[in-house]
């Protein structure tokens, strides 16, 4: 049985979901961001117990197919930007369509109608948060960050960073109180 979970955006979330499933005697076959497949078919009390337990951890079990698809889109973006070593070399619209087996126009329209922003803006928000994170860690140069996240140049990254944050990457790097945004709040 497949279950779709909202706000499941990190490895820590996956650990929470696994723990809750284990606690209810459920056995996950696949455990990915936003989606879990379990061996058992559940309903009634067990479903309600799981829904309540996940809610206490800031996660939400979803019933609606469109909401589930929105969460899958978000999970693919988060995985691509935050957990891959480098951004895929193919166009993101093709990448998303291939990963989710839907036409990109449909995905884009659904996402925009539901979230009030385009998929492109959602990706940019995540890329900028990833840039901030990498700047805070201070392990990579701006050129390496630009390459890692698929920017055409350092100036493209810098212009986008300034447009979103109002700061240059170098000024952000020098700030003492760096402002990172939690993934689930993007």
What key attributes describe this structure?
9% strand, alpha+beta, Alpha-Beta Plaits, 186 residues, Arc Repressor Mutant, subunit A, 59% helix, 9 helices, four-stranded antiparallel sheet, 3 domains, single chain
If you had to describe this structure to a student in words, what would you say it looks like?
The chain has helices at 11-23, 44-56, 65-83, 92-100, 104-115, 119-137, 142-148, 154-165, 169-174; strands at residues 2-6, 28-32, 35-38, 60-62. It has 3 domains: 2-63, Alpha-Beta Plaits (2-Layer Sandwich); 66-117, no CATH class; 122-185, Arc Repressor Mutant, subunit A, CATH 1.10.10.60. It is an alpha+beta fold. The protein contains 9 helices and 4 strands. The radius of gyration is 18 Å and the shape is globular. The protein has a 4-stranded antiparallel beta sheet with strand order 2-3-1-4, with helices on both faces. Helix 3 crosses helix 5 (104-115) and helix 3 (65-83) packs parallel to helix 6.
CATH level-two architecture of the largest domain? Orthogonal Bundle
The helix tally amounts to 9
Tell me the strand order in the biggest sheet.
2-3-1-4
Question: Order of SSEs, N→C?
Answer: EHEEHEHHHHHHH
* CA gyration radius, whole angstroms: 18 Å
CATH third-tier fold name of the largest domain: Arc Repressor Mutant, subunit A
